[in-house]
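quick one, 118 residues, struct below
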Amino acid sequence: MGMSDVFSIILALVGTVGVIVLTYYGSRWYIERFIKRPGSLSGQHHIKVVERLIVGKNGSIIIVDIQGVQYLVGVTEQNIQILTRLEKPISFQKKQEIQKESFLSLMKSFSQKEKQNE
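---
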């Protein structure tokens, strides 16, 4: 094995590592430029869960905010159903600041509204 053989092996190794590094930075640039654009599916979060209340083994009631419009949604393993659109949106709070009374009062007002409609 001569000196030229060692040099060609090292050159091939450096070239391979260079292609891998360029592929890595090219992929990062592509993701930053095209995929994380505002309005793309993965760029911004348009749907947020404001609060969730588990009401049974397999069911829960969720307040969902979709671009500023909030809905009360019932969720089970077999079904997802929009119960009502909230007229007064509930403000977003950090998990430490969430008060259960606000959700319970919303549920009471919803049940009273349903009783009035019957």
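The chain has a mean pLDDT of 80.
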